[in-house]
Fold this sequence. Notes:
By secondary structure, the chain is of the alpha/beta class. The chain has a 7-stranded mixed beta sheet with strand order 2-1-3-4-13-12-11, sandwiched between helices. It has a 4-stranded mixed beta sheet with strand order 6-5-7-10, covered by helices on one side. It has a two-stranded antiparallel ribbon with strand order 8-9. It has helices at 11-20, 31-36, 48-57, 60-69, 79-82, 192-203; strands spanning 2-4, 26-28, 40-42, 74-77, 85-90, 93-96, 101-107, 115-120, 138-143, 145-147, 162-167, 171-178, 181-184.
Amino acid sequence: MVILDYGSGNLRSAERAVERAGADVEVTADPHAALEADGLVVPGVGAFSACMEGLLSVSGEKIIGKRLAGGRPVLGICVGMQILFERGVEHGEEAAGAGEWPGTVDRLEADVLPHMGWNTVRAPEDSQLFAGLDADTRFYFVHSYAARTWELDSGLAGRQPKVTWANHGQDFVAAVENGPLWATQFHPEKSGDAGAHLLRNWLGTLA
């Protein structure tokens, strides 16, 4: 299991959480290790454009694309989820994303930002990621930006994407299961037992 090190923070807490969930973890930017690992975690905190610059600096977008082309699992977390979309708009400035999904990440329309703290989500009944978790389970969010629409009809590997939603002022995409590409806007590594359960669900899908 590799956590991709591309200069974004939060690597160590993600490493500890995945280890607690039962995986052997390496934090690295080495492309060979990232390509060959059973699973790849792409974390991310901070600004969309800065995370994309870091990702491009280690050819992370190519690593993600190659893994997905081979059906190899990738999990994006927080801004590591946001950069999977086509573009992000912050403070009126647009930045290109990795483009795995169509759509734009932009500022939430809410009275209080950032959206910081515990919130429930609305997961599809057949979700693998949230399997075994109650509908009122809460996860930890810290963000002001999100994908507020979902624009992809047919997903990777011919499977219908499973989209989970949350609400803070308005609905936004909280998680996606799209073939080998899964992602969460919230932080599983900061979500206690619920986050650990979710990570074990993901690890259980790895070959």
